[in-house]
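Lecture notes, unit on protein representations.

Consider one protein chain, 617 amino acids long.
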Amino acid sequence: GAGAGGMVSMAHQANANAMARGAQAQPPPGSDAFEGAGSTAPPPTSAAALGADLLDKSQSLNLKQVRNVSHLPLVAVDLEDGQIGMFPPKPKNAAGGPKPFVSSAVGTIRPITLQSTETAHKTLRKYLAKDKGYDSIKADALSKDGIGVTVPSPKQWLGVRRLKDVDSYVRDQFPIASEEESTAAIAEEKNSKKVGVTLVNGTLDGLSAPTGDDFDRVVYKVKLVESKKTLTVLPEEALAMQLAQAQHTVSRKVKPDDVEVDDYPLAVSVPAYACHDAGFEALLDATSGTGVIFQRSMAACTACLLPGQEPNPILERINQIKTKKHKEHIKENPESTGYEYNPLLLLVGLTSTGIECTAVQLSELQPDCKTCLFGNFKVLTNVSYPSKDPESMVSKCIDEIQENLETVAPEADGPVGMVAYGTKQAQSTIQEQLKTADLDTWNKVPVFTTKPDCVAVGTAILGGVTHGRISTLTEGKNKKPKAQLAIRVQNVAPTAVGIRMNYHGGDPDKWTPAKVLFDFDRRVPAGPYPMDFTAAECAAHRAAGDKPLTEETIVEATKKFEGSKAIPQREIAALNFQVQIVQKYTRAGPWKKVSGYHRPLTKHNDDAPEDSEENRV
């Protein structure tokens, strides 16, 4: 009828429970918000729970979660460089305020190399079926000498739906099956006698054939013994083994043979260009609901500000600029009694897979908390790119950061310093690139280097903060002291989110251009973005054909389809209307689909056969 309508609310927020997925957006009663996955579909990806927001909100642990693991060391992993850090258990009777944190990396995660034996095959098969844990994999399947079948770089394939979705320069580095060879990902498939690993197009359940929907996944086909069937391993399952390896590494350092090692809480840092929905969701799965996740830039920022036995050159630079600006302020305002200086740092990180640059403003100085001298990290802008040649993009990223700052924070002073993080070789490359770059007004800004384990150490600290192992006091209600997180990070989104509509039943040539809903550098989590749809409007768009309606013409065009005589046209329009959420990973990159498509103006008719036309009304 004329009142037929629906609403999609894209509220960019997630469940405060860090161990769960983001809160699922609620479609109209009976509507089919996500089409095409079938009865074995994975939990739908909510429009309200995209990667950047999940990262921002997944840090809010509840009291029970914190208490249950407070006696265990926290395991920190820099996923890109493989460094492992740790934060000690919370003292039972802490007194005298927060203690300075002193640590370094305790190891590195190694590739997953499996023995080519029947025992290893059997153990892996039972591990994938959840019948055995990592202890069994470690004892009976992992190679002790590095010789065997290696599952390559699972971090790069997290959440990837199809092989063609990955750039060719990445595919060229891996054993990839052709599209013809990439058939159904059957859990145990006897399709080859060759021992080894191949990446193929598969599905989440490992049984059905890829159909081009959100149920598809790129998977590893692992064959350990010629006489045995092939096993299907999801990238997050392979990564889970590496994270368990990190837990055991920490256990050996603090408490060998600890029976609770699998319960050690995890903190993982990832580059900004990996903070998209598909990869982030898979990473949450890899942590088995025990992890908090941070951007590498924030971890590096945390660790680079640590005081040490030797004077910290970054802190000295901040104090030098602060003193200079304070004198200038007093000269210009002789009667002023207060002055606040919030320094701006530019962090530049380089890995083998990409580059990220982040401008962060520091505030809320906390002299009594040496581990977290600044209580507030406000990210102003971020630029990141996955790349086969990230070294050549240093100057480009700095230029974009400068341009963005003029838009998002024109009042901000230039950075007090540029901080390089990553391996020694990566930091050396950053320094060399910055020497030859035309930085305009930033030419005299000093470049600081950090220790190679900077990100792992910073991840450990942020994890400790999130778990309440470092806190500071603030004034609560009735001016009573109240504990707060020692570092409050205000992130911005490193991705953009948009929406596309189709008024013609999903005709691939009839999708509208993507409309940006939440752009790069938006503050996260963002508020709700409701969108109302009516069948009359959809009928008007269908009738317009190739002449898109504007905001000025849609109102008049809709009136033609609001009477009772237009009920048939509205019904057809409602049944053919589809909505697709899309996400852009880089500023110049393409839009990519997030989950399946919505059909907000239809609902199931449970009395009709599943495949019949009467199934939807």
